[in-house]
Amino acid sequence: MIRNEVFSCFVFYAVLLVIKMYTIAVITGQVRLRKKAFANPEDALRHGGLQFHREDPYVERCRRAHLNDLENILPFLFLGAVYSLTGPSLTVARLHFLVFFLARVLHSLAYLLALRAPTRSLAYTAAQVPCVSMAVQILMSVAAYA
Question: What pLDDT score does 1 carry?
């Protein structure tokens, strides 16, 4: 059992984010199948022929959403884990984790559903605020040891 309440809170949101990333990956695969747009020739051959070794705009949109998750959620996982070890207040930490989680969900929805601009940009920016805050607090905690 994890005894650190902040770390437990972080783990809760981290696991939800990983599940969200898996979900986007599955959606991308399903869209590939539905649109018959395969990135690899062997997959195209298996599903009807080389004419299906092609790109599709919606498949590419799903891929970009997944890549954006990788670029943003992986740093959050590091920052959140280390931040949890610095002894922050549970309330403040939970707010950081919740804001990041909700903003990333909104970002993915904006990407997949092609919501009007600037929805995706605002969601991206909102997710960066807790990351920058955690990074600054981590640096302040360890600066004396540098």
Answer: 66
CB neighbourhood size of 43 (10 A): 14
Distance CA 22, CA 19 (A): 5
* Whole-angstrom distance, CA of residue 98 vs CA of residue 43: 39
Separation between Cα atoms, residue 90 and residue 84, nearest integer Å: 9
Q: Give me the sign of the Cα torsion angle 41, 45, 48, 49.
A: positive
Distance CA 30, CA 10 (A): 30
Written as six digits, the tokens of 12 are 């809760």
pLDDT band for 49, please (50, 70, 90 cuts). Answer: confident
Read off the tokens for 128.
Answer: 């960066």
Residue 105's identity, in one-letter code, is V
Task: Determine if the pTM surpasses 0.90.
Answer: yes
